[in-house]
């Protein structure tokens, strides 16, 4: 697999982490907590990609349920975000998104990183270069997503939270 193919695949892989970061940015003020939340999403992508790669070297059937697990976690997070937004009415959100929620979003959006790492192992692609690409691309997109979320949140707070939950 060529470098350009790896980069495009990893960029596509990072899109759900970017979307999650935008949603977190809507609900979280700028600062150390926002940077930590972006780092958590990135770390989950990196760790699960590596775990998938290692798993792919050992056994294929174990990864079949991974996409369903991620889909269920994302659906639960979206439903909870919708419930909280509708319950709050026109009140401003507290801004305390929390790292525990960031970890749940990070996990749910990076399960596909595990299956991608698994696929890379089956294609005999080495681990280290793609792992560095995952870290660089996801880290950049998570930071950009947090910034975009803050801009959207400042302008379209309630509508952005409803769209993010949906």
Structure description:
By secondary structure, the chain is mostly helical. The chain is 82% helix and 0% strand. It is built from six helices and no strands. The chain has helices spanning 3-13, 15-27, 32-58, 66-88, 99-122, 128-165. The model has no long low-confidence stretch (mean pLDDT 81).
Helix and strand succession?
A: HHHHHH
Distance between the termini: 36 Å
Mean pLDDT: 81
| Number of helical elements | 6
Alpha-beta content class: mainly alpha
Largest sheet report: none
Shape: elongated
User: Roughly how much helix do the residues carry, as a percent range?
Assistant: over 70%
Please tell me how large the radius of gyration is: 16 Å
Record field, number of beta strands: 0
Q: Uncertain spans, ≥5 residues at pLDDT below 50?
A: none
Oligomeric description of these chains: single chain
Strand content: under 5%
